[in-house]
């Protein structure tokens, strides 16, 4: 493959150190960390993801998000795991074409699917390739935390269990804290809500983190609610294919006098610092924060990844797309910064 030139001021080019065959249809890509002077560090939190730029003969490229299966506390190199999907261009291209030594362009680690407290008891729930961010959280919690961890993992069959050997090793090492429950469709059928409810009820004080196919996630939401889990203790990761190109730098065209005259004012708390900004009503929160030179968390800019989720403390906004949020999130005051535009004159936002 030819050397790659970054297409975005935010992106970095990584070299593939190793390609690991996990199962018949799942492959892990292990990346070398940049070593050149001035290269940004690959700092990430357990449960976050990378956005990869994948070549395409039809469109030039497509962007796909893949969770980091590595842990920042136990793995020397970041790793994403890709599972082939039927007619999935990105996953099939990566599994068929990437070899050790190849380069690939990525955006910085992103996502909010990460435990705020690794010492809290956790119920980790995964199906199929949804195990990737869960594995990152699992390894981080066992290494840095002290509380019990329950890991429920559903697959079609034993042959489909990604990271099977690594899970056995972790269970042996942390047998006093880690409980692993496998659910195999070939043996037990599809997970049933009633069975899941009974299984999860003893852990209603845990924080639940889940990732997997839509029907599996729907069953988990119902089962966790029936088992008595408060909404704020349930965290879900959902990915959809991106239609736009997050590797394009945002438009920084100068605003008209009319646009600035009617701007709202907003106080944004980011990483403990409060910033006072003018917020034109035609722009999103991510737009104005980037224009102010702030390191705002975002990735897809389509409302699908949830990386720019934040809380409205005061004021109101409208959103073109609420894709990554459910109604309970919205009722709790969460918004997506890449979709939000002000509808009140004064706002207070917290990241």
Automatic annotation (TrEMBL):
Pfam families xref list: FAD_binding_6 (PF00970), Fer2 (PF00111), NAD_binding_1 (PF00175)
Cofactor(s) of this protein: FAD
CDD domains: fer2, PA_degradation_oxidoreductase_like
2Fe-2S ferredoxin-type domain mapped to chain residues: 264-351
Xref: PROSITE patterns: 2FE2S_FER_1, 2FE2S_FER_2, FAD_FR
Keywords of the record: 2Fe-2S, FAD, Flavoprotein, Iron, Iron-sulfur, Metal-binding, Oxidoreductase
Stretches assigned to the FAD-binding FR-type domain: 9-116
TM region(s), chain numbering: none
Protein name, as recorded: 3-ketosteroid 9alpha-monooxygenase subunit B
Organism: Williamsia maris
Record lineage: Bacteria, Bacillati, Actinomycetota, Actinomycetes, Mycobacteriales
């Amino acid at each position: 493959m030819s050397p790659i030139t970054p297409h975005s001021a935010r992106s970095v080019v990584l070299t593939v150190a190793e390609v690991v065959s996990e199962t018949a249809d799942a492959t892990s890509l292990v990346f070398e960390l940049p070593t050149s002077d001035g290269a940004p560090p690959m700092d990430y939190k357990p449960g976050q993801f990378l956005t990869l730029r994948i070549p395409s003969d039809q469109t030039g490229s497509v962007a796909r998000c893949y969770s980091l299966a590595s842990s920042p506390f136990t793995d020397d190199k970041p790793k994403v795991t890709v599972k082939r999907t039927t007619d999935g261009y990105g996953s099939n291209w990566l599994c068929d074409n990437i070899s050790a030594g190849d380069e690939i362009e990525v955006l910085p680690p992103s996502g909010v699917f990460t435990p705020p407290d690794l010492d809290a008891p956790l119920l980790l729930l995964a199906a199929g390739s949804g195990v990737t961010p869960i594995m990152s959280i699992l390894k981080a919690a066992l290494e840095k935390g002290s509380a019990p961890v329950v890991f429920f993992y559903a697959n079609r069959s034993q042959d489909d269990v990604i990271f099977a050997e690594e899970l056995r090793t972790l269970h042996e090492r942390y047998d006093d804290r880690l409980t692993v429950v496998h659910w195999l469709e070939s043996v037990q059928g599809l997970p049933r809500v009633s069975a899941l409810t009974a299984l999860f009820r003893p852990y209603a004080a845990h924080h639940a983190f889940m990732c997997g196919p839509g029907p599996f996630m729907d069953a988990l939401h119902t089962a966790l609610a029936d088992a008595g889990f408060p909404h704020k203790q349930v965290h879900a990761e959902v990915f959809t294919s991106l239609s736009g190109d997050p590797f394009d730098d945002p438009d920084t065209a100068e605003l008209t006098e009319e646009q600035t005259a009617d701007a709202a004012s907003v106080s944004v708390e980011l990483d403990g610092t409060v910033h006072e900004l003018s917020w034109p009503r035609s722009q999103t929160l991510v737009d104005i924060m980037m224009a102010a030179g702030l390191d705002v968390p975002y990735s897809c800019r389509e409302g699908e990844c949830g990386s720019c989720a934040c809380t409205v403390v005061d004021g109101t906004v409208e959103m073109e797309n609420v894709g990554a949020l459910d109604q309970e999130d919205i009722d709790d005051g969460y918004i997506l910064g890449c979709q939000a535009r002000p509808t009140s004159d004064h706002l207070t936002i917290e990241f």
